[in-house]
Amino acid sequence: MTIRPRLTPAIADVRRAVRESLEQASVAEGQLVLVACSGGADSLALAAALAFEAPRATIRAGAVIVDHQMQSGSAEVAAKVADQLINLGLDPVLIKTVSVGNTGGPEAAARDARYEALNAAADEFGAVAVLLGHTLDDQAETVLLGLARGSGARSLQGMASVSGRYLRPMLALTRQTTEAFCTDSDLSFWLDPMNQDEHYARVRVRKNLLPTLEAELGPGVASALARTADQFREDEEVLSALAESAYSELVSTDSKSLSLPVDGFKNLSLALRHRVLARCLEVLAAPTFARVHILAVDDLVDRWHGQKPLTLPGVRVERLGDRITLTTTKTLKPGAC
User: Fold this and answer.
1) For the chain, how long is the longest CA-to-CA vector?
2) Contact, 316 vs 280, CB < 8 A?
3) Do domains 9-217 and 251-328 have the same CATH topology?
4) 9-217 belongs to which homologous superfamily?
5) Among 234, 252, 271, 314, who pairs with 286 as Cys (CB 3.0-4.6 Å)?
6) Rounded Cα distance, 45 and 30, in Å
7) φ, ψ (nearest 5 deg) of residue 146
8) Comparing C-alpha atoms, which of 318, 265, 310 is closest to residue 289?
9) What is the distance between the alpha carbons of residues 14 and 2, in angstroms, rounded to a whole number?
10) 150 φψ region: left (φ > 0), alpha (ψ -120 to 50), beta (else)
11) Residues 6+ positions from 131 with CB-CB distance below 8 Å
């Protein structure tokens, strides 16, 4: 006979977060939901809460464990986590082994490989959603990193609770809550050594910067950063919609270039103008671009004196009469614009 853990505040909070996330996503009876689980406290608490809530919502629940092969013994860790998830009643429980490249650094490469594996698993089994174990602490770290890198409003809005098929039920809960959930549920969670490795910027933010801010400014810094992300996301949703409308109205395209009229573009507010340019660079698959590139294109509008074309990463930008043209060496995919 399975002995259920007593209902502590931490268990109640995580279960409630999962229940509300499934309701928000309108997951229907009989549909499959997967949870990405590394075996750490965050994802293990999420998996256990999903295992509890899924039968009550008459949906199916499974799990995906991604073995990045970046540490010795990772296969054994994945197998142990799989056993825990099977014992929780999740089905299917999949282990996806991936090879991590080196594009953009190890963290970015691991993230890309992980999402590719999660997408493949969801497609293979017809899952309508994949739950991710990001917490309020992760959100605060993301906002601080975005602020330090000067990445703009899109970065400062952090992670969304719903992003396509991905759900993040625990963005309002702390890491302390997920660890308490596991302790209260008698679940043994894995402590990833990489989460202590200060070679990684996120670990330095977690171990050094956030505690220092809390000590100097008082408690609640992480919560304040998470609230800031919510506010930025609300604003960004409106600005992005306006920019998308302006992009559709102004931008013309052919197989390798985009162009837009100087007069119509100049009439946009700077906030919209920069978002339209960022959208152009995104469509043209520019590998990287930053604010300095956006401002350089602005010079072709506001400070035009016949200057030579700009060479940005992967994109050539020039003003020809009353139009600005952005050209790539690649052929655009049909419907990319």
Assistant:
1) 81
2) no
3) no
4) HUPs (3.40.50.620)
5) 314
6) 23
7) -65, -40
8) 310
9) 20
10) left
11) 18, 21, 33, 34, 35, 36, 46, 50, 166, 167, 168, 169
SS (H, E, C) 321-336: CCEEEEEECCCCCCCC
Q: Phi and psi (nearest 5°) for 36?
A: -85, 125
Write the CATH number of the domain with boundaries 251-328.
3.30.465.60
Domain parsing of the chain, residue ranges = 9-217, 251-328
Contact 286, 313 (CB under 8 A): yes
Task: Give the strands of the sheet with 310-312, arranged side by side.
Answer: 252-253, 257-261, 323-328, 315-320, 310-312
pTM: 0.80
Order of strands across the sheet with 32-36? 93-97, 60-67, 32-36, 129-131, 166-167, 162-163
Phi, psi of 55, rounded to the nearest 5 degrees: -60, -35
Q: Centre a 10 Å sphere on the Cβ of residue 308 and count the other Cβ atoms it contains.
A: 6
Neighbours of 218 (CB within 10 A): 9
pLDDT digit string, tens, across residues 44-95:
999 999 999 999 999 999 999 999 888 888 899 999 999 999 999 999 999 9
